[in-house]
UniProtKB/TrEMBL annotation:
InterPro entries: Peptidase_U57. Pfam families: Peptidase_U57. This is Sporulation peptidase YabG. It comes from the Bacteria. The gene is yabG.
């Protein structure tokens, strides 16, 4: 086996697909391909996978991801539709322009980052992405926040509870939660008002309470469960398209993530979506002057 191979763990019944991130002696560091879980395993416990689509867990995860994308598209339309009545006309959408919240997405997994950026692009959410190791995220934010000036920051990658650690209150029991917490603090030092900068942080089994206390608006994982790769993106899209005068419907947003209430939680937060008029692209050409 080598770095980059797709594998499952035999001792877990091959329930989840991983990619080998690195090898050390007879151990492998694994990153989930559909879930944001960081794990390690003995090499003799791993089984290579040639066709991921044959795995039931992978099929379910992809079906859930497609359903999540469909929901995002529908809700993107619904969230902006109330403005149609304000502007009137046979094709009212053409009469105004939209300003959804701008996203800065930091991801510890390059493949997840690419998938996330593709979703933002499909849904017309302005977004900039950066791939960096979770330990480098605090420093990366110091540079990127004043440069990008986002409305929404997503801080995610891979995480997990360390083996034989039972104390969920101890940050040292997690593989990357301490890095996420430090990154959230950097973001909150940059902008203290939680409605001016929405922070979404965490990955699988992350220390939910510590992330909220550090200043995040939404975080994983209240039940220390696995979260799907697109769950942080879903929350970011809903934040970007909820009008700035309205509170993001927390229960509804979380209920429609793939991992649900055990995977994602948050606090009351205002949206970041605005409209403007006129839509210059829809206006007739100006008459010539003189």
């Amino acid at each position: 086996m080598k770095q980059g191979d797709l594998v499952v763990r035999k001792s877990y019944g091959g329930d989840m697909l991983f990619r080998i991130a690195s090898l050390h002696d007879q151990m492998a560091v694994l990153r989930g391909t559909d879930y944001r879980l960081l794990a390690d395993s003995r090499l003799d416990d791993l089984q290579s996978v040639r066709n991921p689509d044959e795995l039931g867990g992978t099929r379910r995860a992809r079906i859930q991801a497609n359903e999540s994308l469909r929901r995002m598209r529908e809700e993107r339309e619904q969230l902006s539709s109330p403005y149609s009545a304000m502007t009137g006309g046979a094709n009212p959408r053409r009469s105004y322009f939209e300003m959804p919240g701008k996203v800065l997405h930091l991801d510890g997994d390059i493949n997840y980052l690419k998938k996330s950026m593709a979703v933002y692009s499909q849904l017309q959410v302005p977004a900039e992405g950066a791939h960096c190791h979770e330990s480098q995220m605090p420093q990366a934010l110091l540079h990127l926040l004043p440069l990008v000036r986002p409305d929404i920051v997503v801080i995610t990658g891979h995480d997990g509870v360390l083996k034989n650690r039972k104390d969920w209150s101890d940050l040292n029991s997690y593989k990357n939660s301490v890095n996420f917490v430090q990154a959230v603090r950097v973001a909150r030092d940059y902008e203290k008002h939680r409605d001016s900068l929405i922070v979404i942080a965490g990955a699988c089994q992350s220390h939910f309470e510590a992330l909220l206390q550090a200043g995040s608006n939404f975080a994983s994982s209240p039940g220390r469960i696995m979260i799907h790769a697109l769950d942080p993106v879903y929350v970011a899209v809903r934040s970007a398209y909820t009008p700035f005068r309205e509170t993001i419907n927390i229960s509804d947003v979380i209920a429609h993530t793939i991992s649900g209430m055990q995977g994602v939680g948050g606090i009351e937060t205002m949206g970041r979506y605005r409209i403007g008029v006129p839509n210059l692209k829809a206006m007739p050409s100006s008459a010539s002057i003189g």
